[in-house]
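Troubleshooting log. The previous run stalled partway through. Resubmitting the same two chains, unchanged.
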Amino acid sequence: MSAAARPLLLPLAGAALAGLTLLAIFAGRYPLGLSDLAAVAMGGSEDPMLRTVLFEFRLPRILLAMSCGMAMALSGAVLQTLTRNPLAAPGLIGVEAGASITVLAAMVLWPGALAVGLYPLAGFTGAIAVAGTIAGLAWRQGVSPLRLLLVGVGVTALLSAFSDLLITYGRIERVESALLWLSGRLHRAAWDQVQSQIIWLILAGLPILLLWRHFDLFQLGDSLAASRGLNPARFQIAALFLCTMLTASAVANVGMMSFIGLLAPHLARQLAGAIIVLAADTIGRSAFAPVQIRQGWSWRSSVRPIC
Amino acid sequence: MADLRHIPAFLALALGLAIAGLFHLRLGASPLSWAEVWGAVTAWQPENPAHNIVIEMRLPRLLSALTVGAALGLAGALMQGLTGNPLAEPGLLGINSGAAFFVVTGLLLVPGSTLSMLPWLAIAGAICAALCVVLNAGRAVGSARLILAGVMTGALFSALTIGILILDQQGIETLRRWLTGSLAFESAGMRQMVTPFILLAAVIAVANIPALNLFRLGDQAAGLMGLNVARFRLTLLLAIVLLAGASVATAGPIGFVGLVAPHLARLIFGTDYRLLLPAATLIGAGLLVLGDILARLAVRPLELNTGIVTAIIGAPVFIFLVVRRVK
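Second attempt completed without errors. Output:
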């Protein structure tokens, strides 16, 4: 990608995102057209059905998908920079495994012990705890990228064995509701989820964007970065913590979304240079999100026609 | 054998395997006495129910555990030799998931597929996954990128498998347990079908022992010593996919046996592949037999999936290896 083309690509990605958003608004079982959208925007339409579909179903879902997508993509980009490894994904530091084992255990072993509204919080706590454990095990005068990734692989394998245990031997109806909860709740998106996700995105994402200079420095290698006044160990801890918060909030709000965190930074890197990678990939990932919405739709209509 | 010193250790290993096998026959949902096990093995009377449990239910399962464990142990040792990476293993590198995906796809989506196609499907899947990993792993020997490429390949194939199972609800019911690795199915027929593949792979492995030892020096040095590196890699890869495919066809994807067995073998016998390969094979078989005993005892009269047990035991070993050995 030539340097001259870069400034063009960010608007292009933005345009693609806008196009997909429109597509996501229009596509679905209840067809909406441009004229409907214009009518609602002008305040001319009093059709309650139209307003319900748009404001209660489509919009929260699109916004949730976008904000979660941004969170996953940012944390993927952070993790790939931290580990200096292009194959790292948020799932590898145990965030998803930690969230899913906590929720599974809560729903299968002790149902009723937690109010339903607390499940995201439980998942979040589990995710942070597991990610902390992995970082702690991998710690040796700083987080060694290689150790971090490999310990992550091991702990994830261990936790998924326990998840399999619960899935295979738990009471089937509890397991099914837990799996449903985990496998993504985009189709039940509500405004309070959107709100919480956006708050987390600002809380953890903004510092990452503001740290872009440090990320660029860190890419030069530990010793060079240290010579320019960056404390690599402290920077790693801070970045890991922010990255965990982002992923954990996304998982807590919509469930598992593997691979997006892995893919998005690469797309962004193809599009943009190292300096604007964070900004570009935020858009790059959320361009994926509406596609996921569609997948969720088709899944829902083919598998669970009742809901 | 290179050295007579190692004969007692091998004898002890074989003895341990035999004892584990006897326990495997005795313990289970209905515990039997030693006399009944012994009677069944030496003088089988078809009308004796205890004898029938031993001969018709537990013995085939024991043989499957031995076969699959040996295949996985050998595959792990070969992979670690081939990649120069102490963490390589068919489960972690996604080979098992690839094989499982092909099996599920073939059985559920291709009309007219029969069980006899299963080993071929599994091997095709193993080849496909192995190619994915090799192409993504880069050229650096012993790099972590290999493991990551493998883990991502495995995750990809598992996700695809789940996607197919969502389309086919009945498939979930029949394949849910197989997918986490289970020896509980009637697998005597499958074992006979995959035995030729395993034997072929074993022959390849034995023929490549000198090359494996040479390859420890690094691929360049081995090439200078007259080893045809490309051919060596290709034949070894063939052996690995045969072993992984055969074990997945028999028992579903079972992880970590291929990781732990070669490491235990290395602890006892050192790094000479003349000793390492047979030892890893024996230890792999023993580990899976022990894992299967645990799987059947933990929640009696129900049983756990063997793959879950091996992961719960094997994953901490993996973490320990990483924390100790990786800088």
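Takeaways: Chain A has one domain: 3-303. Residues 270-282, 289-307 of chain A have pLDDT under 50 and may be disordered.
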